[in-house]
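FORM 12-B: Structure-to-Sequence Request
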């Protein structure tokens, strides 16, 4: 028997009550996941309507949008009494940068190379600069292996250089490539993983994600909401936003280390697989609701970008995985 929309609403309402999402962060999740593939623009009234079922009232949302404009994420356009908000070039870049970590695979082979960012003491960096740089590098997944030395096994030198440039200190830090020397017998960099990253805490977050959303998958027998249930699209959209928001909140703090540096039963793998199956099981119905609320035949609301259909490997991969694992959630290919 397919899951009724009312039952899906109850499951999501329980999760929202236990851990209410923050308005600004949830707004970023919606803009990046739902609106960016449709052009990245939305009327304020539509944004309010979409986020109200997730516990975000109009006052909080208006404040959040105002802050996102001030921080350069959004551009505001006045059309009479209506306000249209559009992802700025910076917001689009931020969204695209985060997308690989949110939706992309993490099991690519590792060649053993590390990217290091070193802050020499003699460059005159102040405490505020060092603190801001450390925060930016940690957000990017870097761990501190020694005072002033940050490392990442999958880091891209261009991304590290971009961080330095954005902070206005491109000439005050070194960006290096490093590799363990064979036969030397020294301590391998990978041995510092537990010291550089809070892997136990991250594993706990992944287990909690599975605990929270596994009941939703169990309830999604057949993976489809009833087509004759008028509440199904709205329920699917709310569930999709909550799922993606919780996933995004964890995975953007995951350094995504190579498999050889993680426990064999690393819960991040199971959590990503669960998120993939649920995301695609909810996607079709949720898109119907999004189009109903935010589409209106407006020129700014574009057809779904093809890139969105490759998220988490695509709906066909999610459906095949669900069948192979005996999962009740079936993604619509």
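FORM 12-B RESPONSE
SEQUENCE OUT:
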């Amino acid at each position: 028997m397919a899951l009724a929309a009312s039952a899906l609403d109850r499951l999501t309402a329980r999760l929202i009550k236990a851990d209410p999402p923050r308005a600004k962060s949830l707004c970023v999740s919606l803009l990046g996941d739902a609106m960016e593939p449709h052009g990245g623009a939305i009327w304020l009234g539509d944004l309010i309507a979409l986020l109200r079922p997730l516990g975000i009232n109009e006052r909080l949302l208006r404040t959040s949008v105002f802050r996102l404009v001030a921080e350069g994420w959004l551009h505001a356009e006045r059309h009479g009494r209506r306000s249209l908000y559009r992802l700025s070039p910076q917001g689009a870049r931020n969204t695209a940068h985060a997308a690989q970590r949110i939706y992309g695979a993490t099991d690519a082979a590792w060649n053993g190379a590390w990217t290091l960012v070193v802050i020499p003491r003699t460059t005159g960096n102040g405490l505020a600069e060092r603190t801001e740089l450390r925060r930016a590098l940690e957000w990017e997944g870097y761990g501190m292996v020694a005072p002033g030395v940050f490392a990442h096994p999958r880091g891209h030198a261009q991304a590290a250089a971009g961080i330095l440039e954005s902070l206005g200190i491109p000439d005050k830090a070194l960006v290096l490539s490093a590799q363990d020397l064979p036969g030397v017998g020294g301590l391998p960099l990978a041995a510092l993983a537990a010291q550089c990253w809070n892997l136990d805490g991250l594993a706990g977050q992944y287990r909690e994600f599975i605990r929270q959303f596994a009941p939703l998958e169990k309830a999604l027998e057949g993976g489809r909401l009833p087509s004759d249930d008028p509440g199904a699209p709205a329920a699917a959209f709310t569930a999709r936003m909550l799922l993606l928001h919780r996933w995004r909140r964890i995975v953007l703090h995951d350094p995504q280390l190579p498999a050889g540096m993680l426990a064999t039963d690393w819960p991040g793998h199971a959590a990503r697989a669960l998120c993939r199956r649920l995301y695609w099981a909810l996607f079709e119905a949720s898109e119907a609701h999004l189009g109903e609320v935010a589409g209106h035949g407006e020129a700014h609301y574009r057809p779904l970008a093809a890139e969105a259909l490759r998220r988490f490997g695509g709906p066909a991969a999610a459906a095949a995985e669900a069948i192979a694992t005996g999962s009740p959630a079936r993604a619509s290919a």
